[in-house]
Write a structure and sequence with these properties.
CATH superfamily of chain B: lambda repressor-like DNA-binding domains
Distance between the termini of chain B: 11 Å
Oligomer: heterodimer
Mean pLDDT of chain A: 88
CATH topology of chain B: 434 Repressor (Amino-terminal Domain)
CATH architecture of the largest domain in chain A: 2-Layer Sandwich
Radius of gyration of chain B: 11 Å
CATH class of chain B: Mainly Alpha
Number of strands of chain B: 2
CATH topology of the largest domain in chain A: Alpha-D-Glucose-1,6-Bisphosphate, Chain A, domain 4
Shape of chain B: globular
Order of helices and strands of chain A: HHHEHEEEEH
Low-confidence stretches of chain B: none
Helix content of chain B: 55-70%
Largest sheet of chain A: 5 strands, antiparallel
Distance between the termini of chain A: 43 Å
Structural class of chain B: mainly alpha
Mean pLDDT of chain B: 93
Strand content of chain B: 5-15%
Largest interface: A-B, 11 and 15 residues
Number of domains of chain A: 2
Low-confidence stretches of chain A: none
Number of domains of chain B: 1
Number of helices of chain A: 5
Radius of gyration of chain A: 19 Å
Strand order of the largest sheet of chain B: 1-2
Shape of chain A: elongated
Chain lengths: 167, 69
């Protein structure tokens, strides 16, 4: 899937350059590019703050978002780990936008910057044989590559979570 | 871990609930609960000081070392 994504991105990039060079006077090309890309961006922007669209953003078939996932092992019960996670997020730079208390799921978004449109972080606390684990699934808003932002977000969250155990 | 946290024993001795202690010293119940279970990485002197003040006890009443073979 990663290779397919790379291939798609390359074709899109070369295709865009080809269109712009060869159809400089064709307004349809400019309208097409000018409407389709912002429409996708607006769609993703409007539905991003809901856990209901988690599968859309994280789907392997969604080639326009870059995904990353990792886990944090916790020696706590699911309830305590969930409360602890909420507390850590409240004190972090991430913004909590949706919570599902029944399934122990939290959706947070990272800060927007010059370099990124911010990312969605889907966190779910799950029970394991020796405590619980926090599954962290990160997706870009509308970008084929995250340029390391997804990994950076996980590192920041992990660091904040670890630091919170110094009381 | 070989360091045992006896916070629950001290709370029982002082007939105080975790929530009451949390409100008195300004540390969340989640954090106190984790501390009570001995699952924290470290404890600040300021936290230890606040707990000792609230429970009118010594650090040794809260922390105990048990040798693990």
């Amino acid at each position: 899937m990663k290779n397919l994504k790379d291939l798609m991105a390359t074709i899109l990039f070369i295709g865009s350059i080809f269109l712009v060079i060869n159809f400089q006077n064709n307004t349809y090309v400019y309208w097409g590019v000018g409407i389709v890309i912002p429409s996708f961006l607006l769609l993703n922007w409007s539905i991003r703050k809901s856990l209901n669209y988690k599968s859309y953003f994280l789907s392997k078939y969604n080639l326009f978002t870059a995904k990353y996932s990792n886990t944090i092992q916790v020696d706590l019960s699911v309830n305590t780990a969930f409360e602890k996670l909420k507390e850590v997020l409240d004190e972090s730079s991430f913004k909590v936008v949706d919570i599902n208390y029944d399934d122990y799921e939290i959706l947070v978004i990272s800060k927007m910057s010059v370099w990124s449109l911010s990312e969605n972080l889907y966190l779910s606390v799950q029970s394991t044989s020796n405590g619980s684990k926090i599954l962290v699934e990160i997706s870009t808003l509308f970008s084929v590559y995250s340029w390391g932002k997804n990994e950076e977000n996980f590192k920041n969250l992990f660091k904040k979570f670890e630091e919170s155990f110094i009381i | 871990m070989s360091i045992i946290v006896n916070l629950d024993i001290m709370l029982a001795k002082r007939k105080m609930k975790l929530k009451e202690l949390s409100e008195e010293i300004g540390i969340t119940t989640v954090n106190l609960s984790i501390l009570k279970q001995g699952k924290v990485k470290a404890i600040r002197f300021s936290t230890l000081n606040a707990i000792c003040q609230a429970l009118d006890c010594q650090p040794g009443d809260l922390l105990e070392y048990k040798k693990v073979d």
